[in-house]
């Protein structure tokens, strides 16, 4: 494999979390975001660039930057909406390229263009798409309900909630219908 054969040993550059897979777990009808954490354990500034095999499917922010020694940066990878087929295996991949930052980083395009192959360090991530389970969806609905409940006028809520143990369930169901969500 081209990238693995050219990769430096672990710890020779920026560390990456997660290390091997970038998981997207949603319905894929809206933008789905996964986060990467890039850490610079070295004592020198490093620069990085994130590339993908499917550039039209993702928005990466920031997609390149300089990271000071001993610091970290969070990178958001936003998967654009698409028609998900669970029978189709994702072939999308990301590669993180990094190198020691030169003294002048004012023109990063030139820095990357002039970089020598032996200066570059590569880490590869594959993308995994997962549909949420029924439990995930119930958890998300409860999050929506509790967020809505905190924004609701407490005097209205106190009239709706009785001391019975079924009150929270009734409140959740009413709130879901109010929000236009169904329980199916």
Topology:
Layout: H1 2-6, E1 15-17, E2 21-25, E3 32-39, E4 46-52, E5 58-61, E6 64-67, E7 72-79, E8 93-100, H2 108-114, E9 121-130, H3 134-151, H4 154-160, H5 167-178
Parallel strand pairs: 2-9
Antiparallel strand pairs: 1-3, 3-7, 4-6, 4-8, 5-7, 8-9
Domain MSP: 13-130
Pfam families: Motile_Sperm
Protein name: MSP domain-containing protein
For the sheet with most strands, the description reads: 5 strands, mixed
Helix content: 25-40%
Mean pLDDT: 77
CATH class of the largest domain: Mainly Beta
CATH architecture title of the largest domain: Sandwich
Instruction: State the secondary-structure class.
Output: alpha+beta
Strand content: 25-35%
Low-confidence stretches: 1-11, 144-184
Order of SSEs, N→C? HEEEEEEEEHEHHH
Number of domains as seen in the coordinates: 2
How big is the Rg?
Answer: 23 Å
Measured between the Cα atoms of the first and last residue, the distance is 45 Å
Number of helices: 5
Characterization of this structure:
This protein has 184 residues and is of the alpha+beta class. The chain has two domains: 2-130, Immunoglobulins (Immunoglobulin-like, Sandwich); 134-178. Helix content is 27%, strand content 31%. It is built from five helices and nine strands, in the order H-E-E-E-E-E-E-E-E-H-E-H-H-H. Residues 1-11 and 144-184 have low confidence and may be disordered. It is a single-pass type IV membrane protein. It comes from Dromaius novaehollandiae (Emu). InterPro entries: Ig-like_fold, MSP_dom, PapD-like_sf, VAP.
């Amino acid at each position: 494999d081209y990238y693995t054969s050219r990769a430096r040993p672990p710890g020779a550059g920026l560390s990456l979390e997660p290390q091997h897979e970038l998981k997207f777990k949603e319905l894929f009808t809206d933008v789905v975001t996964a986060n990467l954490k890039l850490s610079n354990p070295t004592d020198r500034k490093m620069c990085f660039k994130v590339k993908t095999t499917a550039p039209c499917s993702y928005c990466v922010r920031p997609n390149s930057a300089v990271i000071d020694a001993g610091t970290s940066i969070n990178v958001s990878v936003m998967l654009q909406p698409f028609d998900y087929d669970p029978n189709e295996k994702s072939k999308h991949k990301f590669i993180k390229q990094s190198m020691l930052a030169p003294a002048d980083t004012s023109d990063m395009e030139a820095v990357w263009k002039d970089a020598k192959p032996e200066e570059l360090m590569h880490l590869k991530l594959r993308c995994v798409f997962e549909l949420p389970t029924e439990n995930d969806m119930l958890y998300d609905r409860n999050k929506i309900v509790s967020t809505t409940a905190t924004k609701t006028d407490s005097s209205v809520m106190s009239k709706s909630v009785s001391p019975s143990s079924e009150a929270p369930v009734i409140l959740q169901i009413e709130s879901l219908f109010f929000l236009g969500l169904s329980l199916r």
